[in-house]
Amino acid sequence: MYQPTSTEENYLKAIYHLSNTGIKSVNTSSIATSMETTAASVTDMLRKLANKEWINYEKYKGVKITRKGEKVALGIIRKHRLWEVFLTNILEFEWDEVHHMAEELEHVSSEELIKRLDKFLGQPKFDPHGDPIPDQTGKMELHDKFNLSAGETGEKYIITGVTDHSTLFLKHLRKYGLLPGVTVSIAEIMDYDKSMLLKINKDKFHLSLEVSKNILIKKYVS
Amino acid sequence: MYQPTSTEENYLKAIYHLSNTGIKSVNTSSIATSMETTAASVTDMLRKLANKEWINYEKYKGVKITRKGEKVALGIIRKHRLWEVFLTNILEFEWDEVHHMAEELEHVSSEELIKRLDKFLGQPKFDPHGDPIPDQTGKMELHDKFNLSAGETGEKYIITGVTDHSTLFLKHLRKYGLLPGVTVSIAEIMDYDKSMLLKINKDKFHLSLEVSKNILIKKYVS
DNA sequence: TACTATTTTTAGATTTGTCTAAATTAATAA
DNA sequence: TTATTAATTTAGACAAATCTAAAAATAGTA
Question: Of A27, A128, B11, B59, which is least surrounded by CB within 10 A?
């Protein structure tokens, strides 16, 4: 129906993420925080998005994304994550370097370009951070991730993603080789501060709760 | 000094092209035509570009691009042409399909991205249309091209580019396999309308002057 | 319930890039 | 050289996205 502007795409993406991964209700101020803008700007934009039927919005009552809006958001997320795969796998960037570039590339409009990029990359199901890539219809694999901080001593796990996507955190993990796909086992969990001793092959690392809380894992099945 | 907006980049690119490949002086209306906008909008923008020292501009006296402006323009042209190579060589688009996508991709800002893309593509010197790709400093190969319409009977030539970049023309050439890099020989030139009989390997084509005037060639050296 | 604090919206401005219509300057031709 | 035509610039307005400050609505609490 309508063609979203880059800004509208960014708002819809933020609203989608807040709706799904966030815990709190999607209100004006949470959007303002995540977009690094003011509540007044958000209110203006919400009216526009509602006019175009991408969200349901009632003054003072918060926001709910519509099917149409979700479709737009998933399209952008698909582009973002595919470009991230391109940047890491093909152009050999590190996983903590690609986010900003993908933020620009995701707004390149051609659907055919994304279709071919997807094919060229071998139709990847996850991006370098372990986040699932929606297909053309918006569907994506959602495997049962849980927090490394909830792991148990002696158990083996595969890292599947992160909850903190900041460059600082990703760089930190890279130092220890803690990347999606890597197999780890928990050697010991300290009673005092819930920090843990982690094993990758023969190497051992000491990990604070702060860090383990932001790592997602799934059970290792041999 | 200043960071150009996408719009400013497009104006500088247009002015650069008019300065070099165009015959007429670079005046307000020629820019308006090539940008598909009004003379009034151009005047507004020229003042901005002059303030940022990318052009020299005196009211009613036309425009001359500065060193700084040329540097910006060549940077954009470099990105545009590298993305075109990516789209044709890697994603297997046809040469007449890539222009519009490259117009969007050229505004993605990361210099490091372009550096790596260039490396990944094998540091190509020409884009799919035979246009030279500037290096990081703005230098590019300028081999002595001339018009196919100025070619001589019996001579062998290599196609190096085109002067008409429209989709319609490029599609037309593609039908005959007349792409940059292809070797052709002129079998006959008709006295009456200057149309020519062209040979690629064993195939023969009849080409109007209209078409041959828009094809660039260089001498074949075995 | 009534008061206060917080959140949200409105009002009014700003910036960028655009437009149309009017005014001005330059170019052309009798 | 003067009159007419063409090109260019100015003036004023608009749309998108943003901001600050003020007003209005909601939520929390005594």
Answer: B59
Residue type at B217?
A: I
Q: What is the mean pLDDT of chain A?
A: 94
Q: Measured from the CB, is B184 under 7 Å from any atom of strand D?
A: no
* B113/A contact by beta carbon, under 8 A: yes
Q: State whether residue A47 sits within 8 Å of chain B by CB.
A: no
pLDDT at A152: 94
Task: Determine the average pLDDT of the residues in A55-84.
Answer: 96
Residue-wise pLDDT for B98-127, tens only, equals 999 999 999 999 999 999 999 999 999 999
Contact A157, A216 (CB under 8 A): no
Identify the closest residue of chain B to A98 by CA–CA distance.
Answer: B113
CATH number of B82-138: 1.10.10.10
Q: What is the mean pLDDT of residues A58-62?
A: 93
Residue A10 CB neighbour total at 10 angstroms: 19
For strand C, give the nucleotides within 7 A of a protein CB. Answer: 7-12, 16-22, 25-26
Which residue of chain A has the CA closest to B102? A108
Q: Residue B47 CB: number of other CB atoms within 10 A?
A: 13
SS3 A183: strand
B1: pLDDT confidence band, cut at 50, 70 and 90? confident
Q: Tell me how far apart the alpha carbons of residues A67 and A54 are, in angstroms, rounded to a whole number.
A: 7
B113 vs A contacts (CB less than 8 Å): 87, 91, 101
CB-CB under 8 Å, B100 with A104:
no
- Whether residues A101 and B108 touch (CB distance < 8 A) is answered with yes
**Contact between chains at B101 and A120 (C-beta distance less than 8 A):** no
Distance from CA of B181 to the nearest CA of A (A): 25
| A6-65 CATH pick, 1.10.10.10, 3.40.50.300, 1.10.150.120, 2.40.10.10 | 1.10.10.10
CA of B178 to C1' of C10 (A): 62
Q: What superfamily does domain B146-219 belong to in CATH?
A: Ferrous iron transport protein A (FeoA) (2.30.30.90)
d(CA A182, CA A195): 20
CA B161, B162, B168, B172: dihedral to nearest 10 degrees? Answer: -60
Q: What DSSP character marks residue B2? A: P
Helices (H), chain B: 6-20, 28-35, 39-51, 67-85, 99-105, 111-120, 167-176, 209-212
Give pLDDT tens digits for B16-26: 999 997 666 79
Where does chain A hold its CATH 1.10.10.10 domain(s)? Answer: 6-65
Per the CB < 8 A criterion, the answer to whether B182 and B172 are in contact is no
